Each structure stands twice: as C-alpha cells, then as structure tokens.
Amino acid sequence: MARPVSHDQNFKNLILDYPREALAFFAANEAQDIDASVTITPLRQEQLKERLGERFRELDVPLLVEWPDGRREALLFVLEEETNPQRFSIYRLAHYCLDLAELLATQRVVPVVIFLHDYPGIPRQLALGSESHRYLAFDYIACVLAATPAARYLDSDNLVARLNLPNMQWTPEQKVDIYAKAIEGLLTLEPDIEKRIKYLDFVDIYTGLSDAEWQLYESRYPQESTAMTGLVERLQTESMLQGIQQGIQQGVEQGMEQGIQQGEQTLLRKQLVRRFGPLDAKTEQRLQKATTDEMERWAENLLDARSLDEVFGDNSA
User: Which long-range contacts does 124-133 make (Cβ < 8 Å, 24+ apart)?
Assistant: First the structure.
C-alpha cells in the first residue's frame, strides 16, 4: 500500500530550508529587491500562534522580510500549499493577513497560495461592500504549479524551482528528463549532503517513476544515477545506525536505572544486617521487589527504627 504524502509538511520544509529561493520562485515580482542584506525570519519562531489562534493550520508559513537600511517597511509573505480545493477559504486567508498586519503594525502583506493543481471555481478575489461602495478588496498571488511550464526552469539556478519541476507542466514523454533535471539541480545547487538526501525523497515523491521509467533514467543518465545510488545507500546506512544508537541509548538508560536500584538494594541490605542481623527470606523478597521510592523511605525509617517492623512501617516481619 502506498504511503500517504504530507504535502503540507513537504512544502513547509522546503520554504523554511530555502526561504529566499521560495520567495523568488513563488512570488517573483514581490521578491525582486530581496538581496543578501535582507533578513528573513520564519514567524513561527516568534510564537505568533497564540495570537493567531489554533484555527490556522501549521502549513501556513509566514516569513518576515526586513531591510536593515530602512528603505522599506517589513514585508510579510504568507505562504500556503493547497492540494484540496475544499480546504481553501479566501475568507480565512484574508482574516489571517489582517491579523498579521495588525500584529506586526505593517500594511505590507503579500499572501501567496501554492496550488499543486488548478481548480476551477476557486475564488481569486474578495470584495466586501454594497451597491454604492466597496469597503474591502482582497486578492492574493496564486502559484499554480501544474500550470507552470517546466521548460522555463529546466536550467534554473533556483533550487526550489528545480525541485518542483515534477509538479510543473510537461508531457508524459518528458517525465524521465524532468526527473533528471530535478536531480541535476539538487546535486549541483545543494552542497550539503544531508539536504541532498532529504530532498531526494521530495523529487521521488512528486515524480513517481515506474520501474520501467527508472531503468530508462539509469540508461540515459548513468552519472546522476550512480550519485543517486550513493545517496540512497547513505540514507539507508544512517537510518540503520540511528536505530542502533537509539537502541543502545535505551539500553544504557535502562541499565543505569537498574544499576542505581541494585546499588540502593545492596546498601540498604547491609545496613539492615548490621542493625538487625541476618535477614529472613520474606524480607529479602521484599527488598528485591521494592521500588526506589520505597527503599528511600525505608532508609529514612532505619535512622530511628528499633526493629524491622518500624523500618518497613507495618506490623509484619
């Protein structure tokens, strides 16, 4: 059975890992002045959730873009990934943007909605008013990936664009080459091996090569295929090592806890024998089954106890 795909989490990771590239691709016109001097802060790090309320999904990724020289006000991008048209509400999006504008004391708010597919009937504008006057007008940037020609981005130096090539518009005959271009972008534009491994999975999910298509890819692009194989092998090895390390850590923690408990038993036993002589079988069994809290209580009782009964706090030997 195919595993479920968390589109929300996939795109949230992509935007947070590559915020500049994401803004340049999903909102090109608005991001033209964003250079290296500009700071980009994911607002979730500022704990805005308490103010915005639980009704907003975690998939919303507000990014605060600030120019340190004061040329412009703070610019806020609200990015969402929508795959189910029934989930999208322009009213909710407008409400969200108003909340953010009030919270950050800015009117520079750019809402961007990322759609995997194009859905007829989705509202692109919201106007509130009467026959005589419009009191509120709201719209947003709609980035429809399935309607975006992949040919424009085959050699793009924007990694977010290259990783999204499988989500763009192309013919079935281009599928293997689209996959190859996405992988080429990942290998050439991302030097970090860990992120290569992370976004290899992203490309695989959204391309979905069949066995026959995978064989065709291996024959057409042997060099990239070899690099891919190395990434997959490393991913498998790291997953195995992580599992082993977790098992060792759990064993160490359990062993430490057991060692502490055994040490407390030994110490308490010696103290009881010194005070009251050899212990009977019932007392030995009681020590073996005792919890740490019980042994600590008995050790305190031992300071003033004149018999085993008083140590254990009952009338039984």
Answer: 124/90, 125/90, 126/90, 126/91, 126/94
Domain boundaries, the chain: 1-127+134-147, 239-312
44-57 confidence digits (pLDDT tens): 544 444 444 444 44
Predicted confidence (pLDDT) at residue 306 exceeds the cutoff of 90: no
For residue 169, the 8-state DSSP code is B
Helices marked H in the chain: 7-17, 19-26, 49-52, 90-104, 159-163, 175-189, 193-207, 211-220, 222-276, 281-289, 292-302, 308-312
Q: What is the mean pLDDT of the chain?
A: 80
Distances (CA, A) of 241 to 88, 245, 285: 41, 6, 40
Q: How far apart are CA 42 and CA 76, in angstroms?
A: 10
pTM for the full model?
0.67
User: Quick check: 109 and 79 in contact, CB under 8 A?
Assistant: no
CA 183 to chain centre: 22
pLDDT 10s digits, 174-213: 999 999 999 999 999 999 888 888 898 899 999 999 999 9
